[in-house]
Design a protein that fits this description.
By secondary structure, this protein is an alpha/beta fold. Helix content is 27%, strand content 11%. The strands form three sheets. An eight-stranded mixed β-sheet has the order 6-5-7-1-8-9-4-10, sandwiched between helices. A two-stranded antiparallel ribbon has the order 2-3. The two termini are 35 Å apart.
């Protein structure tokens, strides 16, 4: 199949496990390692008489967000609480985690949340996925790269490492993650890539992607994606960044609780139909996956004893990156994939050629009856986006960075702040490019001084330019 693929499109959704989203698809394809209803967790792993919570098919709109920190996930997969300073983050004597701590961990987070995490969607509740399962390929042994939260796992997708991160590290975040990415590798080999974003792109957590030479690789999804599909101008590697902020009129579509999964379903429908109608379709692979499981139950034991990608020890918990996270949904969508394929191992699907791939996908019905809660507190990932934005607009030099900057921010306030910061950064990139700056330079901002028009001299930005009194400064990329 590889020789037939010229364009790969990647969409990473948020915080849902395989069983939660696709477990009940087993009813339409028995080859899927899904659920039967016999799967369960005790409400307490230390009490033999504890109530048993069975996995059901009654998932609906989820609010609030279940636990998915590295400590919470430890309990979910091993069935015992993690005690800082006492518990080894990877038990040496457990080769097959029992996956029996989802219910007790959730119940401790909030009363009755155990029922929430022990529930999956009926196939008809996620109709886009139901159709994709029938028409293309799913992977039922695809695990999150790290048994931790969003950020480390998203970093792994694009660079095969989190550079030691198991949670947020503001010092590294401010400078930007230094590792080489797939984008750098593609650029070096002469391939093209593009990042189509609806919200400020989280790929800017990578320091190298802040370089001027990559500024033109970022495109607004709503104004560019469908047009590029129609004209057959998608690059070799496409990353789609969805809406991470849940706002009235423009709801989040990333599937992160408490966001409505139907918005994610309809967004995937929109992306698929644009790709399907493109003249590039016959040479395309569309991959949908999730960063991590978000605290929801999955019955398949997480792999242990895996090799570290780079030997870097985790910045917290002395984690050796020797085990994976919980299983997540993943689709391979292409005219070269046999309908109804279930991939169990990395060997991939059998090559075929479909001539009747569906041109459209079904619509999903809304699960949430109320509007977005713009006054809600921001999630950990959203807080990290705020901190990244502060690195882009220069607020990272202020005393309020990092903790006080995002303290008390609502979703609406954070979305506004992040979008404004990215706009400032893009404008600064444009000024530096027009001034003739080298492509390897990364613009940095000084929020204490007002921005002025760019100096036409190439030297402007490399040092304080008294000729035009600009406040632009730059640093060289790694």
């Amino acid at each position: 199949m590889a020789e037939n693929i010229k364009t790969v499109v990647v969409l990473i959704q948020e915080n849902r496990s395989f069983d939660h989203m696709l477990g009940w698809m087993r009813a339409q394809n028995q080859e899927i390692d899904g659920v039967t209803g016999e799967e369960s967790n005790p409400l307490s792993t230390s009490d033999p008489s504890s109530k048993t919570i069975y996995f059901k098919n009654e998932a609906e709109y989820v609010d609030p967000d279940p636990g998915h920190s590295i400590q919470a996930i430890y309990e979910q997969v091993y069935g015992v609480q993690y005690i800082d300073g006492q518990t080894p983050i990877t038990p040496k004597d457990v080769t097959k985690p029992p996956m029996n701590g989802f219910a007790p961990e959730a119940e401790r987070e909030q009363t009755s949340m155990s029922e929430t995490v022990m529930n999956g969607f009926k196939p008809g509740a996620v109709p886009v996925y139901q159709e994709l399962v029938k028409e293309f390929a799913i992977c039922d042994k695809w695990f999150a790269s790290v048994p931790s939260s969003t950020q480390p796992n998203r970093l792994f997708v694009h660079s095969a490492t989190s550079h030691g991160l198991t949670s947020n590290d503001t010092k590294i975040l401010t400078k930007g993650l230094p590792q080489k990415t797939i984008f750098d590798a593609l650029h070096e080999e002469g391939y093209t890539f593009g990042i189509y974003y609806q919200s400020t792109p989280s790929t800017l957590f990578f320091r190298n992607l802040r370089q001027l030479k990559y500024a033109k690789n970022f495109h607004e999804f709503d104004t560019s994606f469908k047009n590029d599909c129609k004209k057959g101008k998608l690059p070799n590697y496409v990353v789609i960044e969805q809406r991470f902020w849940d706002l009235n009129g423009i709801p989040a579509n990333d599937d992160h609780p408490s966001h409505d999964v139907s918005e994610g379903q309809n967004f995937i429908k929109e992306v698929y139909e644009a790709l399907r109608s493109s003249p590039q379709w016959e040479q395309m692979l569309f991959i949908i996956t999730y960063d991590e499981h978000g605290g929801f139950f999955d019955h398949v034991p997480t792999p242990v004893g895996v090799p570290s990608p780079d030997g870097i020890v985790g910045t917290n918990f002395n984690f050796q990156f020797d085990r994976l996270g919980v299983r997540v949904p993943t689709f391979f969508i292409s005219p070269w994939v046999e309908p109804g394929t279930v991939i169990h191992r990395p060997s991939g699907p059998t090559e075929t050629s479909q001539e009747d791939c569906p041109e459209t996908l079904p619509n999903a019905k809304k699960l949430r009856e109320i509007g977005a809660n713009e006054e809600a507190k921001i999630s950990d990932f959203q807080r990290e986006l705020v901190q990244m934005a502060a690195a882009l607009n220069g607020d990272c030099t202020k005393d309020i960075y990092p903790d006080k900057l995002a303290e008390g921010m609502t979703v609406a306030e954070a979305a506004h702040y992040v979008n404004d910061a990215y706009k400032i950064f893009r404008e600064e990139c444009d000024r530096c490019i027009k001034a003739g700056m080298d492509g390897s330079y990364i613009p940095t901002m000084d929020p204490k001084e007002p921005a002025n028009k760019p100096c036409p001299l190439p030297v402007c930005g490399m040092l304080a330019c008294f000729g035009c009194n600009t406040n632009t400064s730059t640093s060289k990329g790694d």
